[in-house]
Amino acid sequence: MPLTGLTPALVMIVDDQEANLRLLGRVLSDAGFDVMPASSGAQALERLAVETPDVVLLDMRMPDMNGFAVLERIRGEPKWADIPVLFLTAAHERDLLVRAFEAGAVDYLTKPFVSEELIVRVRTHSEHKRYRDKLRQTIREREDLATIIVHDLKNPLFNISLNAGMILEAGSDDEEIATRAASIETSAKRAMDFVERYLGKRASLELRARCSVEAHTPRALLESVAAELGEDAGRRRQRIEIHAATMRQQVACDRDAALLILRNLLSNAIKYAPEDSTIELGVHAGAAGSLRLWVADRGPGISTEQQAQLFKRYVRLSAEPKDAAASSGVGLALARQEAEWMGGELWYEPRPEQGSVFVLKLPQAGPQTPGYQAPDGDEDA
């Protein structure tokens, strides 16, 4: 069943023979399609840059830039990659079929073509594309709506959990009240767990969609996340120290993705480190071509058994502090995923005395990295 209320499908015809362009264009126009002709591969690419068709009919045998070269360019451009391409070939050129399909064509027509077959094939592929586009739009709208709803649930859930916790801390002689308060607190934390998990996943996907790898100084990244979470640490009488005394080298990363990782690490350190303790952030040179940013705390550390599960999705530490906010169980998994996406690594190291160290390894920026500035001397902390 065709989608209703849509403008006619736009079909690009690419053929170096003027007679073929006129004939194909007339047949498709009479069938209700809008037609966009191009007499060469270069002209086709120029017109694609201005308007995106629903279907492309592409002659494979053209001078200068043949159909395979055009198809490669189309499939290499994300905004064109989903356009169905039907190639035109002579009946005796069956050897081109496999090659064209391997290059990304979805169907073919032999010349001389049958008008009815041409119309049916073009209509089928144009409608399929529009169904896919409509489905993507619907999914995107629903995800956006779900994100708004889920985000708006955070504060009410936090307040429910906080007040239930205050009732428990105040104590009650009524056992039923205490039991119900504990149940409310547990349920609210589970709901917050889901909220954080959902929002964390969306944040990760959105970061990738708008990624921009540039040169950044590690100290600036560490100072930014320390300032952002300084109030949280202050409530637990914790101090945040930054050790980046003479580090002038820069890292090549997406700033938002790097801050997402560091924010997760520092937030965990604040949660697990004891009150009135010091949390340290720092950076040092790693293996050739890399720098290591780290977050260290004096918390209980992580057992050998739990270390093996640390970066797996939906796994939470068993020794979460009693007063901690709900943990999503995906933070470290997403953090490692983002690190690897930027060409880096993320791992855990136990502190010899007590506590944990998380290390974020990132590529070192060089002159070829956008935004790079050559070091002009040491800078004291």
Structure description:
The protein is elongated, with a radius of gyration of 29 Å. The chain is built from ten helices and twelve strands. The strands form three sheets. It has a five-stranded parallel β-sheet, sandwiched between helices. Strands 7-9-10-12-11 form a five-stranded mixed β-sheet. It folds into two domains: 10-113, Response regulator (Rossmann fold), CATH 3.40.50.2300; 212-381, Histidine kinase-like ATPase, C-terminal domain (Heat Shock Protein 90). Strand 4, helix 4 and strand 5 form a beta-alpha-beta unit. Helix 5 packs antiparallel against helix 6, helix 7 (218-235) runs parallel beside helix 8 (255-272) and helix 8 (255-272) packs antiparallel against helix 10 (331-341). The chain is α/β, with parallel strands linked by helices and 381 residues long. The chain has helices spanning 18-30, 41-48, 67-76, 96-103, 115-170, 175-209, 218-235, 255-272, 304-307, 331-341, and strands at 10-14, 34-38, 55-59, 85-90, 107-111, 213-216, 239-243, 251-254, 278-285, 290-297, 345-350, 356-363. The chain is 48% helix and 18% strand. 29% of the residues are buried. Mean pLDDT is 83; it is low at 322-329.
Keywords for this structure?
alpha/beta; Heat Shock Protein 90; 5-stranded parallel beta sheet; 5-stranded mixed beta sheet; 48% helix
CATH fold type of the largest domain: Heat Shock Protein 90
Low-confidence stretches: 322-329
Give the strand tally.
Answer: 12
Q: Roughly what percent helix? A: 40-55%
CATH top level of the largest domain is: Alpha Beta
Number of domains: 2
Order of helices and strands: EHEHEHEHEHHEHEEHEEHHEE
CATH architecture descriptor of the largest domain: 2-Layer Sandwich
Write out the strand line-up for the largest beta sheet, numbering strands in chain order.
2-1-3-4-5
Shape: elongated
Estimate the strand proportion: 15-25%
